[in-house]
Amino acid sequence: MPREVTRTIHGGEEATEGVEPFITPIYQTAIFPYPLDDGKKFRGRPLKYSREDNPTNVVLERRLALLEDGDDALVFSSGMAAISSCFFHFLKSGSKLVLSRDVYGVTIPLAKSFEKYGVEVDLRGPEIEDIIDAIKGDNVLVFVESISNPLLRVLDIDEIASVCREANASLIVDNTFATPLNLKPLSHGAHVVIHSLTKYIAGHNDVIGGAIISDTKTIEGLWQVRTRLGCILDPHAAFLILRGLKTLNARLRISQESAKAIAEYLEDHNLVTKVYYPGLPSHPSYEIAKRLLRGYGSVVSFEVKGDEATAKRFLRNLKVIKPSPSLGGCESLASHPASSSHRDLPREERARLGISENLIRLSIGLEDVNDLIEDIDSALKSASSP
Ligand code: PLP
């Protein structure tokens, strides 16, 4: 029997030997017993330190790889950590990064910070022809989002992937807005898929995380980057994301149905001038969306009749829907892109992207759709007659 002080450290450890939990537990440990013989491997490597690998994360990584039709995956402390790691892995002096103009606002300054290392950053689009025009030369990396924010343009991944293949360029697709249930970019020829797990995949607005899914060799290289940058996901967060992911299909079914009903309702509203939802025949991407997507997602954007002040009054007057710039959770949220996600862009650049000052983005959650419609209607009416 070890002495008292040693018992405070190791006492009872044997009590869980042979226990097999039904649900993946949180492996809350920084270290693992280092295997001194060569035989014991985890993912082809000795499991020794949670900055490198952690079993809770690995279950999430396997699940994401299976969902996206990839060989393997890695999880990160945020969506931005996943994107940063990708840029670190792929870009070198002399590389050209072709970046779609309407990617998530923070991705653009991140990309530009690589210019000081001799990377050319070519902001293109949002039209596909303009992006394709830039895909030529050596060492080209193309970064796009499958569904853009906030106007929900759906990119023809088949076309971009085929141009990338011919030009020997690598294609990274941020698939956060589509989710793997609505689109699997790797099976359309993309090389790498990125997710902000914070959004639909975790789905409860309570955790931040990111992921990269790709082929085995690319993931091996990215594993080195993640280990050196130290931006692996915390296993507590992985546990929450694993739990959230189990209901992705059920959540999406309900929120997409409500989003479509709300988009149709807004199209007929006399205080609304424009509606953007890829499931509406009036959306410019409707035909591509119908061909590529299994579902149209639960984000709806629209322009209120009036100006920026009317849009802000609308946000203030909402009761059930909460003002917040995120998306993909159980709670319905509303945001004003011109003063939140896209506030750092000059006004002319926003105008070029079609992001007007009276634009509102809704992320539809799981509340009763009738309560959401009543909330929107009453906020529109009081915003228009202050
Ligand atoms: N990609 C997209 C499309 C996003 O909307 C976001 C965040 O809003 C990110 C990436 C960044 O993800 P995170 O906030 O988890 O770092």
Q: What is this entry, summarized?
A:
The chain is α/β, with parallel strands linked by helices and 386 residues long. The protein has 14 helices and twelve strands. The protein is globular.
The CATH C-level name of the largest domain is Alpha Beta
Secondary structure tally, helices: 14
Query: What is the name of the CATH superfamily of the largest domain?
Result: Type I PLP-dependent aspartate aminotransferase-like (Major domain)
Spatially, the strands of the biggest sheet line up as 1-7-6-5-4-2-3
What coarse outline follows from CA principal-axis ratios?
globular
Q: How many structural domains are formed by the residues?
A: 2
* Secondary-structure content class: alpha/beta
**First and last CA, distance:** 77 Å
User: Nearest-angstrom radius of gyration?
Assistant: 23 Å
Q: Outline the low-pLDDT stretches.
A: none
- Ligand roster: pyridoxal-5'-phosphate
On the 0 to 100 scale, the average pLDDT is: 95
| Quantity of strands, as a count | 12
Q: What's the architecture of the largest domain, going by CATH?
A: 3-Layer(aba) Sandwich
Order of helices and strands: HHEHEHEHEHEHEEHHHEHEHEEHEH
Largest sheet: 7 strands, mixed
Which strand-content bin applies to the residues?
5-15%
Remind me, CATH topology of the largest domain?
Aspartate Aminotransferase, domain 2
Helix fraction, binned, reads 25-40%
